[in-house]
Amino acid sequence: MAGVAVSKTNEASSTERLMSVDDALRLARDHLARGAFGEASRIAEQVAEQKRGSADAFHIMAVSAFRAGRLDKAIVHAERATARAPKTSAFWSNLAEMLRRRGFIERGLSAARRSLTLDPRNAQGWNTLGILEFERRNFAEAERACRRALDIDPSAASSWNNLGNALCRLERDAEAHEAYARAISSRPAYYEAMVNDALCWREEADFARATARLDEALVASPRNANAHLCRAIVSFLKGETAQGRIEYEWRLALPRAVPRALPGKAWRGEEIAGRRIFVFAEQGLGDTIQSLRYLRRLLERRVASISFLAPRNLRNLVARNFPEIDVATRMPEAGTVDYHCALMSLPLLLDGPAGTISPGTAYLTAEPERVAAWRERLAPFRGRKIGLVWAGNGTYQNDHNRSMRAQMFAPLLEVAGCHFFGLQIGPAGAQVSALKPGVQDLGDRVSNMSETAAAIAALDLVISVDTSLAHLAGALGTPVWTLLPHVPDWRWGMEGKAHPLYGFMRLFRQKTRRDWAGVIADVRMALDRGEA
N or C terminus: which one in the chain shows less Cβ crowding within 10 Å? Predict the structure, then answer.
């Protein structure tokens, strides 16, 4: 076999020597094992250039790029490898993992299945398939795939961890904890499994065990942002606001949590009078609506200007309610602002760790003309006018806990003197058919938040699971009954029928996990009594 000319470089010189393809690839793999990704890729590129069609070279380039964090380039090289060696199972399973990391779930599934067709004993392929099925919320299939991986390699810590994730979502908690324990036993500093075990304990409302696991994770990885963020969430649920606010700042250290190249300096709460500040919304619509009230507090600091990058669907509503603020559509240019700040950091920076939440008064209004139009549209319906929302965004990781099926609302339709209107948008809006003819569907008429706000303002009451529309109703001052799972989102805490964020909101809580029927029974009783 002809040799390959491989160059060797250092700071002083550049040399070239002839070696076999196998020796060159072996050298590249050695560099890869040592973490010298650039050198491994350079040698593999030389092999690929001189010996066209080298699947192994493209695979080494793919893995080098992947480990160096260059995911798109890794996928390109991995696809070249599988094209040249379509019967190599390991190439397909590695491609599947790269596609998964990039968010290409269906393509990842196809690659993982191809890998396993070629080699049913590929433990990595089964593990990757399990993660992909988990991300599709197909938890039973995720469990099956992970167990297949463990049949092949019982010592694989990552497969035990992923099995624990699937079992936790299937609410087989004891089995999940056992799986996490096996993962940690196989890899003692496995902080990801410790965090996942803590999240499972949180789902059971066992905050002591959750905290203990998070403490272990932070011993193993003291600056692990995910562990700190989970500890913040547990602290909030326990009512420990000060620690929660401090730890919650770790969310900004998560990958892709904040925009790149933010202008100005990070604002840390120092004197800001006369200065220009850029505030950006870094989370979902509900989180943003919850925190808009703090923009007015920031104005009280006598800043020279505030530019606010809001989600597109909220920009008109924000512009109407905060005319003093520039609602930005893109990142301000460097030099146009002095400071930047994440919206959900304002409570900590303005009030301090132990600061109390201001009394919940309405802080948003809808456009009067639109509200009048909605009132006219709803006028023929006599009696109490009530909007219903049964599901949140299905892509939210905790949506399986907070959302319900529309048909769960059916007992409410029997209450006399009430007319119900579906405010549900998105795919779950189709479920309104289970409630017809007792519910008038308004979902296709509230496609933007300004229109939604006007419709809500024209209603007497909104009954909603924990979604952005519940936050919007609370911010508008429309009475809203928010239906919460047994362990709710961090902002609601674990107790109480009211919350200081919203003075017009009442909380209805599950007494046990998945007990939506009990929540609906409580809501119906309150409606029967004519309560506000």
Answer: N
DSSP, res 505: E
What is the DSSP secondary structure assignment for residue 9, as one 8-state letter? E
378: Cβ contacts below 8 Å, ≥ 6 apart: 385, 421, 458, 459
Phi-psi region of 399 (alpha: psi -120 to 50; beta: other; left: phi over 0): alpha
Other C-beta atoms closer than 10 Å to the C-beta of 132 total: 27
- Neighbouring C-beta atoms of residue 408, cutoff 10 Å: 18
Cα separation, 348 vs 252, in Å, equals 14
Residue 421 three-state SS: strand
DSSP 100: H
- In sign, the C-alpha dihedral spanning 149, 153, 154, 156 is negative
Measured distance between the N- and C-terminal CA atoms of the chain, rounded to whole angstroms = 85
Give the bridge partners for 440, in sequence order.
421
Cis peptide before 437 (omega within 30 of 0): yes
Give the integer Cα–Cα distance in Å for 288 and 472: 10
Tens digit of pLDDT for each residue in 276-286?
Answer: 999 999 999 99
3-class secondary structure, 305: strand
Angle at 511 between CA 460 and CA 410, to 5 degrees: 45
Cβ atoms of residues 128 and 148 within 8 Å: no
Q: Which two tokens stand for residue 68?
A: 């160096």
Residue 117 tokens read as 């067709």
Nearest to 300 by CA among 362, 350, 360: 350
Distance of CA 475 to the CA centre of its chain: 23
Nearest to 202 by CA among 229, 172, 233, 228: 233
Residue pLDDT, tens place only, 284-330:
999 999 999 999 999 999 999 999 999 999 999 999 999 999 999 99
